[in-house]
Fold each of these.
Amino acid sequence: MTVASRFSQLTRRLLLAGAAAMFVSLPAYAQETLKLGLVAAMSGQSAKSGEAIVRGLSIAIDEINAKGGVLGKKVELVVRDDESNPAKGVVAARELVQREKVAGLFGGLDTPVSMAIVPFANQSKVPFMGVWAAGTPITRNGAAENYVFRVSAVDVLVDKALLAYAIKKYDAKKPGMILINNSWGESNEVGLKAALAEKNMNYVGIEKFQDADVDVVPQLTRLKEAGADVLFMVANVAPSSQVVKSLDRMGWDVPIVSHWGPAGGRFSELAGPSGAKVHFIQTYSFAGKLSPKGETVLAALKKKYPEIKTLADVTPAVGIANAYDAMNLMTLAIAKAGSTEGPKVREAFYAIDKYDGLIKTYDKPFTPQNHDALTSEDYIFTHFKEGQILPLTN
Amino acid sequence: MLLISAIVSGLAVGSMYGLIALGFHVTYVVSNTVNFSQGSSMMLGAVLGYTFAVTLGWPLPLAAAMALALCALFGLVVERALVRPFAERGSNAWLMATVAGGIVLDNVVLFTFGKEPRAFPSVMGQTRVEIFGTGVYVLQLIIPVVGIAITLLLRYAFAHTRTGKALLAVVQNKDAARLMGINVRAAIALSFAISTALAGLAGLLIAPLFSVHSDMGTLFGIKAFAVAILGGISSASGVMLAGLLYGLIEATVTAFAGSTYTQIVAFTIVIVALAVMPNGILGRAATKKV
């Protein structure tokens, strides 16, 4: 036996021993993770939103774990599908807290699902972080001890921003509303009416439509006859594109100022060229000149998800960006609390001083009175151009 | 202006309901059963059409023909697997089995076709013409024409062709039909193939005006069933007429009373209409011979 072959035999044994040791130690290591849960739509029409949230959270987790994790443990994400169904969302949240023992929960796109989880989170004293659903009462839920935080838009603030934009950009005097017929539409009807009242303005009409409506011409014709000079639109991608197509058919060229529904999918394709006329609100865009943080996150996304090739694939950007910052704020709070106990983490959220995030630099993002990290200052207006969401200069 | 635009919208959407409802009619008159996955069959037509014409880039006529053929094949599968095993035992479980079949298909499409709604490009769905000062897509004018043509074709086939008469003979007395040399199983299977192909055609026609996704058919299927009952499920003309009327009611209620009231008014009218005319608009009372 030559020296070389004996040496290679030795290294092989060492490697085998090492591999065996790793196998033995893996289960022990797995118990040492800090689990955080996500309840979001991973299937159905809003599935793209769930995918974006998972991507944003995962990029943040990779960075956090590369720096040694939180409280000396690696962070692990446990994902459950709510199928956009509030009842399934609550069951999933309960399972994550009681069986998986997650230290905190993240929520998805659907306001009705988040609204259903809120009471459970507050009762079981588990921090619940919203990253998308914008329904006002999610964070402003009136609980004495509120465990719900959010890094996302808030309808009541969005509605003010929509009105301000419509006045500034289009000199709107007689706005009309075209809203999806569900609790999200309701939430914004209330918000838009309040925003208008604040400015002593009136609306010419409020029209509702359904997800499956092929033709919105009858509703839009009513708004046109009432003399609307700007339309406020609140609906997800597919119904929003039906509004645009119906406007095309009527030959009515009216400015549309929209909530962020169109951002959730292939709006350009569905709505056709006129889709570019819809100006909608976002919290973040990966287009244009990015901050160093933006560059880092974009590069990490491209590396981890090879199917992301162009900026058109980084959709919906809000889901990714909100989730990324939310994960960082959640782990910061847990680290500050030095514990995963809900009440301590809740207090620690208020103690977060400064966090240099993707969307902005957060300065005391949470107080006992304010559980929303983003304000109306953080909103930007964008539109679709050739499949990409591009910022508009206000 | 408001009225004309409502009439055009209503007739186009109404004839979609009518086409899918004709599918309920065809299987009902042949076998006294219906396929509750009609909404999913409609979705299948649109999804397959999209896959062949857009993803694979086939010429549109070929893509449409292939999509319809596969929809018909789906109808055969539904009949063989979800209806026949129950109906031949005299059980009504085909009712639930076809609902379940539709849900399975929706979810299979969700995973294979994808989660995002897609746009079905079509020249006819983008070319706009003005009629009495109202903008209309050419496709919206074609859809009612196709719907009415198919109704007339079905009426003619059932009344004047050998196959049509044979199909109708099956429902009256299966044993007698069999003794007369009619292949009863084949006749029922054929009625299911026709029914899903009609739904598939509705899907192909509506796709350019709507978007293509896995649950696009659900609400259409429900409304189409209401339309079938309203029209009197045993009459093809009644079913198409009910479809057009239902579409018109929806559009005019929305235009004049506001969209909040659309579903309330439309379905209330269905209930009242059925109370007044229990057999539907043109349906005949089913006489039970003892």
Amino acid sequence: MRRLLLARTGGRIGVMRRVAQPVTAAATLLVLIVAIANGFSPRQELWLLVVPLALGLLAGPLAQQVTGWSAHRFAQPVAAFAVLLILTLWLPSGHSPGGPVPLWLVVCLLGLGLLAEPLAQVAGGQPAYGYAQSVAALAAMLVMFWILSIDSEVIDRLPLGSLRVVLVLLSFVLVTGQLERRPAPRRFLQLPATIAALAYLLLRLASPPVSGISPEWPFWCMAALLGAGLLVALIAPIVGQPRAQVLSERVNELSRTRRGALDVQATELRRIERDIHDGAQVRLVALSMKLGRAEERYRDDPETAALLREAREDATAAIRELRELARGIAPPVLADRGLEAAVQSLAHRSGADVTVSGRLQRRPLPAVETAAYFVVAESLTNAAKHAPGARVEIRLDERGGDLFVDITDFGPGGADPAGGGLTGLRQRVEALDGALHLTSRAGVGTQVEAVMSCGW
Amino acid sequence: MRVVIVEDQALLREGIAALLQENDIDVVATAEDGPGLLRIVEGHKPDLAICDVRLPPTFTDEGIRAALEVRRRHPGLGVLILSQYVEPAYTAELLQEGEGGIGYLLKERVSEVRTFLEAVRQVAGGGTALDREVVSTLMSERRGAAVEGLGLLSARELEALELIAQGRSNSAIARELVITPSAVEKHISSIFAKLDLPIADDDHRRVLAVLAYLRAIGADGSSKS
């Protein structure tokens, strides 16, 4: 269910992106066509502006449609570069209104923006990519606003409304393009920006400038939208559910359900142990008792008595095997009295000089108890095998909801961390999101440490 | 001999009762849970209570707790725990409390009728009968290592002591070790002497010897944790 939701969300964002950019590009071209139809004779420089722009905008979605490769990431900086190149070429060639363009500023910002991206990528800082492009886009926008704010004869003669709309659209595409990894702000920005730009275009085409409205209103509009966009971009990770957060929740959920599954399994195994104890084992014990009584009655008939004794011994062997099976699943003392008692019992049985310390205030969940029990059991077996006669210290602790199990023997050390028994234990512990650590130094001893959440 | 049985499984409760009655042991009452044990012991004043470990309502160690309680209230009462598994920790607890006889056997031992009846008599008489699995588990691990306090005993004497701990009579020990009853007696008095046990009646000394033995192998909880 969760996964489906995730896929659906991702799909919707993908479609939005694929739809938004061609729409914006189409709007740009439409503006141009309208401008030409209105008697605007396109200058060479303008074509130079429009063609790469349209190409850049269209290439991205197209490339993505065809190859699935997200070419628009490259197409957009290319488009931005083209625009700025045209502007810097175009403005000084006699059309420069109201003073020279601060060319160095444009170039610096542009260069910074374009260079920052590959540099950031080389350095492995993926997030820098977004910032770099934003800087480039900001540079482009600054230039455009500067042009838009100029009120001169030359520009007034041009169908400036159209040109301005193109520039407004362009800057919006560039700016909002940077936010593509944050789908929510993109959605919030691109559509209103397009609407605002188109409204402005219609206003300018339909009539001379409306008195009382500051010609700078697109600037303020954009500034407000940009501010809102940035704000949304900052807030979105908190209020919205960015992919990383969705994924982290998914990871939490999976960990929780995996632990739940393990707990169910552990509980189920204990139930099986009880079923063996109360079912088959009881029947076999009753059977062996009856065979024993029959044996007593046939004492005078040695052949029958021998047969009955054999049958009784078979039953007893079956009981023993069932008991070992049940113990392997879940030792009775663990189910009955919990981890501390079970570890004490292991210490008693081991025959080595074992001390057990530590206290547990509450019983961990069955899966955790069982895993911890087998860590101790296996470690004691290993100690008996590789460090016979050595002193062993076992410590059980609970801190902050985590169970710490520590088994240290003061034997010869040199244990293999990849040994078969340990690998099995490690898997058991890691399945509970825990960790198992072996330290074994020759002449010092061997320490097995396991930590896992108690699961409360 | 008057015996009460506490076992929640009817099949086993009736089986044990039938077996005892066939061998002229009176089963005066039965119960199915811990409080039931206290009640029938109070009401019937038996010589021995035979009790399961896992009993209702918790099906954990109710039987052990009830046995400890009944031994506190009736110090002379013999308690024989029958269980489907042996737990050294439970042995330790049972041995720490009370004066009466104590036994802890696997349920399938009941089918070895003669040995079982011997254990029943031993415990009812104030002696000790521990399952050979408890004894052998503890013993096998320690054999070879110097067992403190028992170091003076010969291998044969240790074997005899192991069998005493299991609640065997002298004649049973003789059969088991394939020696004569008089040889068994010799071994036993040698054990008493080496363990420096005070001269008293033989039954009491047997119990003391077993306790010394259990202490030495750490089964009474004193040398551990």
Amino acid sequence: MTVETPKRGSLFRSQHIFVASTLTPIMLYMMFFTLVPMLWGVAITFFRYSPTRVGGFLGFGGANPFIGVDNYADLFSNSPNGQLFRISVKNTLMFVLMYLPLNLIVTLPLAVLIEAVNKRLKVVFRTIYFLPIVTSAVAVSLVWGVIYNPTFGLLNMVLRDFGLKGLPWLTDATTRVFGIPLPMLCVLVTYLWSDMGYNLVIFIAGLQGIPEVYHEAAIVDGANAWQRFRYITVPLLRSTLTFVIVMTMLSSWQVFVIFFVMTGRGGPSNLTRVLVLHVYEVAFRFQEMGLAATVAMALFLIIMVTTLIQLRLLRKDWEY
Amino acid sequence: MINKILSRRDFLRLSALAAGGAALAACKSGTTATTAPAQEQPAEAPAAGEKITLRMWSHQNVSFVTANEQLVKKYTDANPNVTITYENFPYSDFITTIQTSMAAKNEADLMEMFGSWVQSYAKGGTLAEIPEVLMSMSKAQDLFYAAPLDGYVWEGKLYGLPNEYNLEVGGVLANKRMFEEAGLKYPPEWKSWDELVADAKKMTKVEDGNMTVSGFDYVTGDGLGFLFWEGVLERGAEYFAEDKVHLNMISPEAEATVQWLTDMAQKDKVVDPLTFNGDSNWVGTSFFQGLVAIGYIGPWIVPEGRRNFPDFKDPWDHVSSPFYGSERKFAADAGWGKVVSPNSKVADTAWDFAKYCTEDAANARFWNVGTGTVPALKSVAEDPTLLNDINWLGPSLKVLPYGRFVGDLQDRDYIWYNVIQVRVTECLQGLHTVKETCQLMNDEANAQIDAKLANK
């Protein structure tokens, strides 16, 4: 039997037409609604730009003058914005450094445990742990806000039942646990509760991709459960781990809603002011879009550098 | 219950979807003769026969929308050649919509704007100046109270007309049940803050080291700022520095005011600033949960409280609050009013409608009754029959002549919420001394003012 191959040129031309006709609208959409705003965002970092002031062409110039790198210099200056920016970086970094390991410590063992139970229960557990992910972040934050309420919150009610004194969990600027402000820890716990289902499901998928033969071989060799986890599961999950670490780091640098709802303007005493909250305030409360775009650009650079470092450190040269 | 509510404007965000409104309540009360818009006095019609379409924007508070819609209908009935396209936005989107559309120069012809924002927009050239022939400054000063009007003035020019006198001063919420249980006179007639605090101490409750009832809760985002300005003014000082641009927050009067605020929390213990503050047990909700005996907040909370807490059984009122010294003096925000876009092609009609809503006494009264707000127009506020329609405004109406606009703080929200609220709350919580607090406030506020001036 012979297979008739179409003429090369005509096939390629039709392929090109198909590709062009399907991709062009999406590309145009992406250009107008993603690329152009991004470039606009970069451009306004070089202007003292506020929509409350009348500018020239496209809003630039006039009362929104070109100022070179002044906005970038402001981030390192002693101005109110510079100080708040550095506080925000410190708080966000603290949050990221606590959240990432905490998330991994909770989700990975939990995923292994869930993977070990029978199939029906596995589905039940997976659903329960994933539920917070599909719940509105605002709703989650409001509910946890009530739990933390100092007067009628569930947490303090339980403490009082045990004869302990309740705490103003989200508004106490004085109490620190291992140097971490209490409100920051409270938000961290809430965020972990609401976000851990995502990584859990990814880890479960990763675990299901590990061939059973490796575990069986380890059992034959006399490895116990911990040794199998430490020397089989974790190394073979490296691709999944890389993905989870990078994505978790990305999302936790950009955390916003939960802080916005639970602690308002980064209170108490700016102890929970994170970077995206700062961007929001500078842009829409203080009406300095150029400055806000500069902070957003700094956030972009921070995320890019940390992601590249992570990818480099977690690089592997083998597959299974 | 939502606890993180710092200011009236934040409250608007959360109450935007609340059902009903003071508008409907007021309209139902059988006083329609005095509250109906002035049908009999139609505004001067724009050029006859010319078809005009006007776009108007406001935020989405139910009572505001209802009042505006009715005024729009009356105006367009009287001016059939005018069509007003009225759009409203959730409060949280309203500011961003205005700002982004201003950048694109496609904002509405007429916008409802909070008076304390007006100067920052006016100085940026994004608002139209009202033509002298339509409203002179002297006429405006005769018609409106200084506090709301001055927010609409920039460099001696008028950039809008106020509907509302935004007020946090002059009255407090009082829980009658708690007064009676403590054997106190109700309604209270305090002659000084000391008398108020003495009553508050008797109503404060602490169980197992936790404050369960605050006798007097004043630790709010708005409250601390207004009390600070009022305290400085009534002690005979001025919070603006000599250059009238920077702030002087380290004067002996400023320190005395912060000391007084601190003493109420630390010595008199009428409020626990860790559990009752702008971010937790906010007075606008905690009062209606029976957690606060006396709450420092403006009269705007009354219709909101009635609407949002219908199950709250304790009898309560908004009663007169005392002042310091011999004469009441206070600073107020300029409230909601109407402004016009400089890009509007129908600016004359936009101003005509703005005047129709704000200058005409019957229409202005209709708007205030409908929205439950304090009138900016003197003739409306001075009419004793107004209390037939807004019966809770009595304490507030008494103080209106004594207020002044807070002034151009360059960045009102930063100084209010990021400086005064944060630093005074910290002081109340014992993190700083009074002197340190004043110095911190002074440094931070003036640094921000300098930064804003550099951005001009």
Amino acid sequence: MQQGGMGGPNLSTHPGHLRQGSLMSLLRCAMVAWAVCAVWTTDDRAQLWADEPGLWADAVAQAPAKPRPLMNLAKQYVIDGDVAAADAAYRQAMALASATGRSQDERIHGVGLAATNLALLRCRAGDRLGALAITTAALKHRPVSTTLAEVHSWLELQRLSCS
Amino acid sequence: MARVATPLVLVSLILLTLALYVPHLGAPWVYEDENWLRQAPQAAQSWRAPGRALTSQSYHLTWQIVGNEPLLFRAGNVILHLASGLLVYGIGRALISGPAAVVGAGVFLLHPLNSETVSYVSARPDLLSTVWILLATWIAVACATPWRWPLILGAVWLGALSKETGLLGVPLVALTLLIWRPAAVRRPAFMPAWVVLGAILGATWSSVRVWLEMNPHMGGSWYAWPDFLRLQVTAVWYLMSQLLTLQSFSIDHDILALGPRWTIVAVVLTVSTAILIGIAWRRHPLVAWGLAWMGLAVAPRVLFRTNDFLNEHQLYLALVGPSLLVGAAGPWLWRWCPLAADRAWWRELQEHWTSESHGGPYRTLKGLP
């Protein structure tokens, strides 16, 4: 250990002081790193908010058991014209909404809206009977979403007018 | 030096905020933005209180200028965010110190937890009401003008016309004055009058009554009170944890999937916070104020049982308190030595430690702080 001129310790090179200094530096580095990470993440989030499909894909990754992000991702697939992906996502959303542990709101509106959108997708493809089968099956869930009931009635009317 | 440095740092923070958000101003509409856009052309007829008239007017005005182009709508959000950041600085400067206020404003402006509010045009009500509440608070603590009470009331009124939660300006201004300017509220009639005023304002807002009586078929929650409270408190702390962890940001959080561990953490944190506010009220006013501000700002989310749990943009107002807390902790931690906060004490200990005649290092601790 290096001694100071007065016989006392030279604090700048004392092992304890060095440890103190390095801990301070470490703390400061951690604070700077946190600040840089925060700004970096904000930049990431701002970019993600400019890309709605990416935003919902990220939400699905964050909450894989929640039906709403998946339904909104499915809507993005529909906008992009990827019907197969939308179909699969709506089906998965229906399954998630009726899973154990989900809220009553999700059971009603989650199942109802996913089934409605799935039926409308089928309708757009010209498969009205397929659409009717989807709404009929979903109507077995109780209580029933109003939107789903309305779409089912409309599909029934279409079937009756065609037959 | 500080006189030059503070404005420079503030300008840098504003430029950095602009650099983060301006490149994405022209991005397409997101999620519920189109709902607001659909109402924008009709907003001119809905200029009446109570309601969200000011927010509707801000959409309507923007729509009249640019129509359906998102650029100016988002630019409006960024400008409001900058205004909020500057008001956070103003409040911090009046309450604590310049450097802490700058760091607090920096945290508020640049934190990813606020990015949803800035990027999402539908979050305009939260932004607008926060600006007015912060203005009311700033006037309360930093302006000595005799006109300040009408100005505070005017700002709170405009905040409530931006979003119903703007009514929180009444308790938040009262909290700020109680902690930081007790002399201003020492008159015996002040607090009862302020409480009555808040109650009258709340009662006139028809939507507040609607929220209180909300049923599950009209946007209310299916959960019973204890379950709703448990889940919403968990949501508050889960989102607040992101302030430090900088992880798991999302447009749609799954609170139901968090599990019982998070609920326990949330309950412990809520109780500890309430105790801490009581302990810190006189000795550490910033801690008490920051935590109580956060609590009051999220209180409506716990009181009104809506069918959804907390979202990131709904925390915008609440983040003012924690931002200034982090702002004050930042410069303090920067100077703090992990082994010895008091350098003189450390030096004395070092001298005794290395002395030939000492009787062991721990004896020297006697009488030291």
